[in-house]
């Protein structure tokens, strides 16, 4: 049992896994369940509200054909396409999902904010998708299972008139195309 972990965790009917953590402990926790996107988080009580609420919840997303999942914390330097180190945690969860479902095919979609030129943003989003695809293939996922599309700033999920909105628009997501 890892240091800082008390007892067993539980998963409810909605796929929510929870457990208690000792004060001062920092853990990397991966929750996985067949049919759901695995999720890995770093639990650091000093940087969260665990003092008031000492329960950690990890919500997993059910995977079906057509499921669209934003790869939160897949990050790049502004205007660049090299993955930042914090990206690997969530990308490795995607690797686990793909390895556990060897016939699954996905579509990666890259998005930018609306700052800069349309063609520049389109190329940047394509390069970012290619960086993610390269990471997945270096972890043993066959390239023919991954379709990649860069949309640039064509599909915003928020307004581009604030930094918060632009940050939401800069994202990589994947859609399940096939699963058996």
Detailed description of the structure:
The chain has helices at 87-100, 118-138, 163-169; strands at 5-11, 16-21, 27-31, 36-37, 39-43, 55-59, 61-62, 68-70, 105-111, 146-152, 171-178. The chain folds into 2 domains: 5-61, no CATH class; 68-178, 2-Layer Sandwich (60s Ribosomal Protein L30, Chain: A). The two termini are 34 Å apart. The protein has 3 helices and 11 strands; from the N terminus they run ββββββββαβαβαβ.
Given the helix and strand composition, which structural class is it? alpha+beta
Secondary-structure arrangement, i.e. CATH architecture of the largest domain? 2-Layer Sandwich
User: Looking across the biggest beta sheet, what order are the strands in?
Assistant: 8-11-9-10
CATH topology of the largest domain: 60s Ribosomal Protein L30, Chain: A
Order of helices and strands: EEEEEEEEHEHEHE
Average pLDDT works out at 86
Number of helices: 3
CATH homologous superfamily placement of the largest domain? OmpA-like domain
Strand content: 25-35%
The helical percent reads 10-25%
* Domain tally: 2
**In CATH's first tier, which class of the largest domain applies?**
Alpha Beta
Rounded to an integer, what's the Rg over CA atoms?
Answer: 18 Å
